[in-house]
Amino acid sequence: MSATRIDHINVVVGDVEAAATFLAGLGVDLPAALAGWEAWDAHHRTVSTTPSTHEGDEGDDGADPAFGIDLDSSAFAQHWGGVPRTFNGVVINLRADERSDVDRLYEVALSLGGRSCASPYDAFWGARYAVVEGPGPITIGIMSASDPERRADPPDLATFERA
After folding, report:
1. Using an 8 Å Cβ cutoff, are 46 and 32 in contact?
2. Cβ atoms within 10 Å, residue 137
3. Beta-carbon neighbour count of residue 43 at 10 Å?
4. Tens digits of per-residue pLDDT, 8-41?
């Protein structure tokens, strides 16, 4: 069985621009959008992270592991996560080594009492992806590596509704 690890965190908020402005005011680096993707800033922003300074957090090669955090709008989360239109919260994304592992882990999560938010599907960014809600509640995304040959056009921004 392959290893499962935390890949990144999505912080889903009602107003990405307000959250980004607040974080920037506190000195957090929010990289500029890639050329041609500026319209997405209202729905998706990547937060720059620094390597962990906690003792014992080094990876297998002794280097600090990379970790990602994204701010996403509630409207965007509807398109990738099967969460309610008004969802605001945290989605912890796990990385599975193989596409088939996403399906297997999804079934394991359901057998542990999880509730399906989005059954496994081939996401527009090229990954196999599923979302479950566990006790707590805790929302978990289960994702394979992205396969460039499986990428598709992202959702049309015109279809997004503000929560």
Report:
1. no
2. 10
3. 20
4. 899 999 999 999 899 888 888 888 777 788 888 8
Beta-bridged to residue 140, according to DSSP, are 92, 132
The answer to whether the beta carbons of residues 35 and 118 sit under 8 Å apart is no
Report the first-to-last Cα separation within the chain, whole angstroms: 40
Second CATH level (architecture) for the domain 5-48+65-159: Roll (3.10)
Computed over every residue of the chain, the mean pLDDT equals: 84
Domain locations along the chain: 5-48+65-159
How far apart are alpha carbons 37 and 94 in whole angstroms?
26
Structure tokens belonging to residue 79: 């398109």
The single residue listed with the structure tokens 């935390």 is 6
